[in-house]
Structure formats: structure tokens, C-alpha cells
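Appendix B: complex inputs.
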Amino acid sequence: MAEAARPCTGPDRNCPLCPRLVEFREQARAREPGWFNSPVPAFGDTKARLLIVGLAPGLQGANRTGRPFTGDYAGDLLYPTLLEYGFASGVYQARPDDGLTLVDCRIGNAVHCVPPQNKPLPAEINTCRQFLVATIAAMPKLRAIVALGRIAHESTLKALGLRSAAAPFGHGAMHDAGPIRLYDSYHCSRYNTNTRVLTPEMFRNVFAKVRADLTEG
Ligand code: SF4
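Resulting structure:
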């Protein structure tokens, strides 16, 4: 059974549910008062057919700018790919006021607060899933979810009510949950691209498949 959705789609900016992340947030607010330093809300229209689920805000990326994948390396690969496949319009300039808009696409995260070393704890992933469930529930036209990395994949599976054993993570793998198809990709992190675990072509191929499926369907 899928977990029950809460009425709101995003956490309060002072969400208190994960004590370790709250402490990390407070430290960042004291050190960098000009940064966003709050749970990062999803970006894009709830009427979109595509949802991209990342891991969590990067300290100097979304946690700094307040827009998912904006301001650090992961966005440098994600946004040009979205532009190439018609899921975004404008010019990505790594700033939340760059005017870039998403087209039939929304971006969220499995965990809404920045975790130390980009590593959320299992309890934090489980606690924040209620907001991923709400994000999914708020998208009536949703047909495709791209999960970036294993943690996003696992949390999305649980949010959709699928069992992990029946839908193992793999780059390029696809799993169907009723009208929604889940597409797996390695995360577009600097580490994964530097080590060639993920090449730009591998990443583009995932979005090419999503685009082809949405065009057909
Ligand atoms: S990670 Fe999610 S549940 Fe935990 S404090 Fe942040 S917004 Fe709240």
C-alpha cells in the first residue's frame, strides 16, 4: 500500500522532524545568513507529467540558492539535459533568478534538507518521505519519475507502494506502478561523472527514453 499523503506538498521552512539536520541547518544559518538554509521546495508545475527525484540539497547548491540542483555541479549536467529534451526553457545560469522554467517537468528531492557529507541517515530518508508522497500526490498528470541514484529510487519505490525486491535499482532500468513509470539513473553528481560511472551520454539516454515514451503516450 502506498503511504498516505499529507495535504501540503512541502515542509515548513523550520521543519523540526530530523534533529541532526535541524542542527546542521542552524549551523549553516549562523555561518551563512545570506543562504537559503531551509528545506528546499520542489521546482516546477504540479500539472507536469515528469517528476525528477534527487537525493537531497547540496550544501552550496540548492541549500544555498533555494532551487533544486541550482548552483553546484549536478545542475550543470541536469539543466542542459532538460533543455536538450524540451523539459526546460530559457538559459540555465546557476541562479534561481536566471529565468529558466521547467516544461512539463518538476524537480524534487527524497530528502528536503541538506545532510552532512551529502549522506542522509535511513531514519531521515524515512521521515522526509511523507513530503515526497505529498509531492507525487499533488501531480494529477504524473506519468514519469526519474530517480537520480539508489536512495531516490528506494524512497520513490516506497512512496509508490512498490517492493524493492520487485524493482531493483539499475541505471536505465524502468519499473511500472500503474500509470506511472519509474526510470532509474545514476545521480548526476560530480563524483559519478568524474569517475565515468555516469557519462553525459548515459544521462541523456534516460531523458531521451522519457521523452519518447511521453510523446508516444
Ligand atoms: S529532511 Fe525533511 S522531514 Fe527532515 S527536517 Fe528536513 S524537511 Fe523535515
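The radius of gyration is 16 Å.
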